[in-house]
TrEMBL record:
One of its GO terms (biological process) is 'de novo' IMP biosynthetic process. Coiled coil: none annotated. HAMAP family: PurQ. It is found in: Cytoplasm. Its EC number is 6.3.5.3, 3.5.1.2. InterPro entries: Class_I_gatase-like (IPR029062), PRibForGlyAmidine_synth_PurQ (IPR010075). Keywords: ATP-binding, Cytoplasm, Glutamine amidotransferase, Hydrolase, Ligase, Nucleotide-binding, Purine biosynthesis. This is Phosphoribosylformylglycinamidine synthase subunit PurQ. The lineage of its organism: Bacteria, Bacillati, Bacillota, Bacilli, Lactobacillales. Part of the phosphoribosylformylglycinamidine synthase complex involved in the purines biosynthetic pathway. Catalyzes the ATP-dependent conversion of formylglycinamide ribonucleotide (FGAR) and glutamine to yield formylglycinamidine ribonucleotide (FGAM) and glutamate. The FGAM synthase complex is composed of three subunits. PurQ produces an ammonia molecule by converting glutamine to glutamate. PurL transfers the ammonia molecule to FGAR to form FGAM in an ATP-dependent manner. One of its GO terms (cellular component) is cytoplasm.
Length: 225
């Protein structure tokens, strides 16, 4: 199994993700430039956190026009797994692979802290090593992390079980305390908290590890079938 971590100008969690895969689940991983136009040979795509293009215009807005994006969309259409964390989540909403958007935190400042989340849907490629409603702790570090969508979209997210992670308290004003969602097909996950920064206890939590373990297990099953 081989993962690609897509690197944009201003990505700054790319190496965290790289090591989460290399050392956390001991699988192959390569950094792939935003200038590339092919993702052939990769089984999973990871879009890291950071400040792509300095978050100018809106976080993720300029990255959504990068050369690699058409290929990310093609990969999603094929049903292959894509995980976007923080700025990665912002990019996934900008390119329309996930509904809604991320806007300034209600408190209008950057927040950086460990937060408690509930795993609302454990029956996905990304979460099936967790228990339903399991409480986990992951760090957040964002200024534009407030998930927003209209009521109709929120209803659809609920009906299709697309809400994957929910904050236990209202940390930034997100609609429905949403911390992470998937697309309808459930092969694209976007989340604001950082599982790649919580893969060993020395980092304060290893609650993020099961996410990568779930992904790899399901990717292997998919390839065998
Ligand atoms: N850690 C990150 O990805 C930062 C996210 C982002 N660009 C923000 O501040 O909203």
């Amino acid at each position: 199994m081989k993962f690609a971590v897509i690197v944009f100008p201003g990505s700054n969690c790319d190496m965290d993700l790289y090591y989460a895969i290399k050392d956390g689940i001991k699988e192959q991983v390569e950094l792939v430039s935003y200038k590339e136009t092919s993702l052939d040979g990769y089984d999973g795509i990871l879009i890291p956190g950071g400040f792509s293009y300095g978050d100018y215009l809106r976080s993720g807005a300029i990255a959504s026009h990068a050369p690699i994006i058409e290929e990310v969309k093609r990969f999603a259409d094929l049903g292959k797994p894509i995980l976007g964390i923080c700025n990665g989540f912002q990019i996934l909403t900008e390119i329309g692979l996930l509904p809604g958007t991320l806007i300034n935190n209600r408190q209008n400042r950057f927040i950086c802290e460990d937060v408690e989340l509930i795993v609302k849907n454990e029956a996905t490629t990304f979460t099936n090593k967790y228990k339903k409603n399991e409480s986990i702790t992951l760090p957040v570090a964002h200024g534009e992390g407030r998930y927003y969508c209209d009521n109709k979209t929120l209803q659809e997210l609920k009906e299709n079980n697309q809400i994957i992670f929910e904050y236990t308290s209202d940390i930034n004003g997100s609609v429905g305390r949403i911390a992470g969602i998937t697309n309808k097909k459930k092969n694209v996950l976007g989340m604001m908290p950082h599982p790649e920064r919580a893969i060993e206890l020395i980092l304060g939590s290893k609650d993020g590890l099961k996410l990568f373990q779930s992904m790899i297990e399901n990717m292997k099953i998919e390839v065998q079938s």
